[in-house]
Amino acid sequence: MIEVENVSKWFGDFQVLDDCSTQVDKGQVVVVCGPSGSGKSTLVKCVNGLEPFQEGIITVNGVSVGAEDTNLPKLRSQIGMVFQNFELFPHMTVLENICLSQMKVLKREKDEAEERGMKLLDRVDLIDQAAKHPAHLSGGQAQRVAIARALAMDPIAMLFDEPTSALDPEMINEVLDVMVTLAQEGMTMMVITHEMGFAKQVADRVVFMDEGRIEDDAGKDEFFGEPRGGRARLFLSKILTH
Amino acid sequence: MEMKYNWDWSVLLCRLPEDDPTGTSETTFGGTTATAGGAAQTFDTGADCAQPYLDWIVSGLGWTVVVACCAWVITISLGSVIGVSRTVNQPMVRAIATTYVEIFRNIPLLVQMFIWFFVVPELLPEDAGRWVKRELPLPEYWTAIVCLGMYHASRTAEQVRAGIESIPLGQTHAGLATGLTRVQVYRYILLPVSYRIIIPPLTSDFMGIFKNSSVALTIGVMELTAQSRQIAEYTFNIFEAFTVATVLYMMVTLIVVTVMRVVEAKVRIPGTIAMGGG
Questions:
Q1: N or C: which end of chain B has fewer CB within 10 A?
Q2: Does the distance separating the beta carbons of A136 and B270 come in below 8 Å?
């Protein structure tokens, strides 16, 4: 589904991605972890073309992301993305947030978009928040709306960029629960997270990044059993001690 | 020390008899006739109401409102285009927009008014220049509208740019990630949010257009200040003439402020400091 082959990227002279290769098969959940500044967020943004890259090839569902003639908006509409800071549109209600791209990209009628929106809000248990503005939601609620907004486009894969890092501890689980359900339903997912409990529960593989390189890319059991890279072991020991 | 001045408001309130022609009509607004040309014939009637001064004021106010509102339409549309252009990725587009802003905000408005009126028609191709000078009705009014609109567009462009640049990049990413094109991201996310942010400076600038429209008198636009000045010259009731102008300008700008306050309250984004949050 998602293939990343030998991707390198520079911001000016600074190399943020160094020859990265990995893949996410259909229905797989791949967790990406690593210290901040390791390039994991950049890598995920390369997958749907939010960040350009200079070398290598990324294909999603057989379409090359970096190719000149690729219809990026169309490709992106098939890949849901959830951000660390939710990024709901502040001037729209919750329902309008979920309907905007359904109507403007998928050309759905307003009724149809709203019906789909309400169904998804029901699914993330927020149906009574439809008319509220994002500012009136808690972080956990906002992130669940953001997930509903991405799902409204009927994506073939979902990207998560640290979806629980900005949340208060008591709200992390309500978001993780939604993600676990999604994973169990067979959604193809690439998830940047430090929630190792989530990784242990639903991940098929874990990718560990450091300084722009993919240092480790292993099956879940193998990764948590005995990480091969010394840095990965050090990283794990740091985040698992508490 | 007491100032010696005989206030006489009746000058402004009297009207001409119905059948008294006021000479050739040059500038009309809303069916009233105001003229400088008829002065010589009627001045020796000796009455205070030698001219329909109140009509002049009304006509002047009308032109001030028309010129300012038309200019504002240019300002908001052109200013938005230029402002957006300064935020896009293409260096060429940005350079053109930046050049526009620097030219139009760095030359005094009065100089721009003269350039548009006296110089630009000469630079146009011969036919176009002749059309502007000979056939275009009310050329000074069109010139004033274009000049004011383009001058203020440079300021509005900077406000629009500031508004857009204040929105976190994540919002653009979120829009693009759902499949919106860049144009749609501007149309549905960046511009609606930034217009709401910049309503206060937009209000100041809209009022600025009303006040700056007085500069148009230098190229012959008979707006409020020009009419007041004309009344002052005819009657020597200088204080009354300019008091009326002052009060009317303040009323117009107060209306603008009030309307914009209502708009601002209506479209306010929940969760901003303006809503009492933060």
A1: N
A2: yes
